[in-house]
Amino acid sequence: MAGVSRLQYTTEMRLIRVMCTGRVDSSHVLRAFSKGADGVFIGGCRLGECNYTTHGNHQALKLVLLFKKVFERVGLNPERLRLEFMSGSDANIFVESVNDFVTGVKELGPLGESEGLAKDELELKLKAITKLIPYIRVVENERLRVHFDTQEEYQEFYSGEEMDRLFDELIADKLVISQIMLLLREKPLSTGDISQILGLTPSEIFRHLNNSARQGLVKYEESQDRFALGLS
Predict the structure, then answer these.
(1) Cα pseudo-dihedral 104, 45, 70, 8, rounded to 10
(2) Is 24 helix (H, G, I), strand (E, B) or coil?
(3) Is-above-0.85 flag for pTM?
(4) In this structure, are residues 126 and 33 in contact, taking their beta carbons and an 8 Å threshold?
(5) For 94-105, how does the pLDDT look when each residue is reduced to its tens digit (9 = 90+)?
(6) For the chain, how are helix, strand and coil distributed in percent, rounded to 5?
(7) Is the pLDDT of residue 232 over 60?
(8) How far apart are the first and last CA of the chain?
């Protein structure tokens, strides 16, 4: 069983039901947040109890743990995304889990507000993540093909040093570049402008811009001391 829930402050909850958590895609999660959801709840069968023997619940757990790291890196509270395992007969566990999640999201407040992000900053970050979804799928399939028996083992791996190294190597820089490219699509900007918008040091931004310029993605307009998209 699976559900992606949109939580509103009227305590109304809308569920999108699919047959297996293995069919819950990262694009579903991002679409919910981009459409105004303040939290997303996914319910799945317990590990080892997959009704379709596809291990879709393992895939959903990896997706959630990875996207919690993505959210945290861009300044969004990872507690806005939750996955709980239960059987089809555990109605009481489902109700308790959802109620607890709704309460937690209400305490957090509207998406972006408690994180100190303006509306345009929030939209930029969600768009940047969305644009990276195809790339993140490749990373999951080629570099993060891990399989464990328990939820605790997955959590230990995704919170460990090896995962931190892989995340920094494969995803972290891509997140920054994705945001930079979106900003430059709007208008040319200086290193300082981008640094101020993204809350990163000018040296970090210049490193990303310099690497992007080498690939022809951006160009430096010397007369204006600013960068613009290299492809028109």
Answers:
(1) -40
(2) coil
(3) yes
(4) yes
(5) 899 999 999 999
(6) 55, 15, 30
(7) no
(8) 46
